[in-house]
Write a structure and sequence with these properties.
alpha+beta; 3 helices; two-stranded parallel ribbon; six-stranded antiparallel beta sheet; 151 residues
Amino acid sequence: MTDPAGEGSGGAPAGLAEAQRLLLEAVLTERPLPGTDAPVRLPDLRMITRHPPVILAAEHLADPAVAEGLPVAVELRPEAELGAGGDRPHLAYLAFGPPVEEGDTLLLALHGKVVPPAAGQHPLGLSGIQVRLRRVAGRWQAEEPPAQFAT
C-alpha cells in the first residue's frame, strides 16, 4: 500500500485530486458515484451543511482546487484551526482520511467531525463513507457501493 500523493507512488496527485472531488461532490449533492446506482448518503450531512459554507479540513487533500466550483460553498481550513470551534458552536466539518493506493485501486474515506463548544476539547467523530475507486477508460469509477461507518 502506498500514499498516491507521495513520491514514487503509482498515483499522480492530479488523479487523486480528481477522485477526491468526485467523492466530495457525490456526498454534498447526494448523487451516485460512477459505477453505482444509489445516491451517496452521509447520515450526518445535515449537521455538517446547516451553517454554510461547508468546512473541509485541508489535511490529506491533494489540491485545494478540489473544493472550488462545487454546487455547495466549501471553505478549506487547517484542522488545527478547527479545534477551538470559534464563533460557530458545535462546528461540524468534513475531513478526508489518508488516501490508500492498493494495486490499481484507490481507497478514499471522507468523514464528518464536530468540535464541542468547550475550549480544549478534541473533535468528535461523526459518520463517514469509504469507497474503493478504479480507473476505467480514464475515469474514476466505484468498484462497489460506498460503505458507511461511524467514527
